[in-house]
Design brief:
Layout (H helix, E strand, L loop, with lengths): L1 H31 L7 H22 L7 H6 L2 H33 L11 H5 L1 H24 L1
Helix pairs in contact: 1-2, 2-6, 4-6
Length: about 150
Amino acid sequence: MKILDALMRILAATLVAATVVITCAAVHFRYVLNSALLWPEEIAGYLLVWISFIGAYLALRREGHLSFDLLLNRLPQKAGFWIKVSIEVLLILFFGMIFVLSVKLISVVGATHIETADIPQGIFMLVLPIASISIMLGCLIDLQKHWKGRL
């Protein structure tokens, strides 16, 4: 998991840097050269989706998502354990569903090119199955931690 975490951090940083470069290039072409490019806005938007999903995985791994522990911490230990386990199982099921549906979506419309560039939409949609699998793995690791903590 450490290798996956490192790859995801590198990917997220690369995507943020690419978004900055693309946005700066768009501004330069529009306001300095008076020749607006068509593709930067759409590409930057798709990259933002990648950044969001990869960021969701990274936040999961660092326990950085918002949570309301006040109630959970006041429950009996056994009830808190089962709620944590239930949450992890529901997340695994939810992202399993996202994975299956995203693979179907890519198979149907993935070859269609985006409007402003000759790039298949499937490349940008790949983040859905990649992030889903990664998040499910992270949830399985958390589930294992909960079980070990119970013993």
